[in-house]
Amino acid sequence: MELKTHELQEALDLALWAGELMFRSGAEIDKVNRAITSILTGTGCDNVSTLVAHNALMVTISKSGECQTKVRPILSLGVDFNKLSELFDLAKEVQTAGYDPIFVRRRLTRIQNARPLFSMLFTSIAVSIACGAFAVIFGGHTSEFFATALSTFFGAIVRFKLTRLRFNVYIVFAASAFVATMAALVCSSLVDKPSIVQSAAVLYLIPGVPLIDSVEDLFRGYVTVGLTRGVMGLLMILFLASGMYMALSFWSLF
Q1: How far apart are the two ends of the chain, measured CA to CA in Å?
Q2: Distance separating alpha carbons of residues 33 and 48, to the nearest angstrom
Q3: Please, which of 15, 80, 95, 176 could form a disulfide with 38 given CB 3.0 to 4.6 Å?
Q4: pLDDT tens, residue by residue, 31-56
Q5: Which among 73, 72, 101, 90 has a CA at the least distance from the CA of 34?
Q6: What residue ranges of the chain have pLDDT lower than 50?
Q7: Distance between CA 15 and CA 20 in Å, rounded?
Q8: Cα 152 from Cα 158, distance rounded (Å)
C-alpha cells in the first residue's frame, strides 16, 4: 500500500505512539522495535530504523529516497501486562490485515485510556495473600501468614495511593517499605517467627520486571537501555532497604 507524504507521517506518529505505550508498560526493547516495524509494514517504506533510549523513541523511515525522522519522549515507566498484550495483538493485526490509520488510532486511544483490569483494593488483597504465602514458604505458620498479609496490605495501599498522586517512584518505594515494615514490627509480637514476617512483608516491592528486562536488553545488545533499567531497579531496591532501615531505627527508639 503506497501512502502519500502526510499519510506516511501519520503512520509514523501512530507507530511511535504504540512503541511509547509498550515501553511505558514494561516491554523489552526488542519487542518495541518489532511492534513499530510491524505497524509500519505495508506503508510503502523502503526501510524502517528505530532507536530506543531510556527516555525517548526515535524512528527513521525512508521512501523513494526521502527520509523522515521523528522522536517521541517517554515520560514515565511502569508495568501493565494487559496493555502489552493488547499492543502485541494490535501490531500482529496490522501486519496481517494491513494498515488502517482510523483502526490503529481508535485502538491506541482505547488502550491508552483503559483503566486497570483490577481495582486498587483487589490488587492490594492479592499482593497481601502472595506475600503471606511467601511467609509460609519461608517456614512460617498460620499466624505468620496473616501477620505478613496484613502488613503487606497497608504497604500496598500506600504504594498505590502515592503512585496515583504521581510521587517520585523512589519515594514511593521508601514510604511503602517503611509502612509495611512498621506494620510487620507491630504484628511481630503476635507470632513465633517475627523475622519471617518482617522480611516477607516487603517482597511485593522487589522490581522484578525492570531487572529482568535489563538482563534481556543487555543480552540482546541494547546496552544503554539495559544498564539504565538495571540501575533503576537497583535504586528501587536501595530505597526499599532505606524504608525498612528507617522503620527499624524508629522502632528501636521505643
Answers
A1: 73
A2: 10
A3: 95
A4: 888 888 888 876 767 788 888 887 88
A5: 90
A6: none
A7: 9
A8: 10
**What is the per-residue pLDDT for 44?**
66
Q: Do the Cβ atoms of 151 and 197 come closer than 8 Å?
A: yes
User: Which secondary-structure segment (H or E) carries 12?
Assistant: helix 5-24
219 burial (CB, 10 Å; 0-12 / 13-18 / 19+) is exposed
Q: How far apart are CA 133 and CA 123, in angstroms?
A: 15
Q: Alpha helix locations (H) across 138-168?
A: 142-164
Q: In this structure, are residues 131 and 152 in contact, taking their beta carbons and an 8 Å threshold?
A: yes
Alpha-carbon span 223 to 67, nearest angstrom: 27
Distance CA 187, CA 147 (A): 6
The torsion region of residue 141 among left (phi > 0), alpha (psi -120 to 50) and beta comes to: beta
Residue keyed to cell 511502569 = 78
Q: What is the pTM of this model?
A: 0.85
C-alpha to C-alpha distances, 171 to 22, 85, 245, 251, nearest whole angstrom: 24, 29, 14, 20
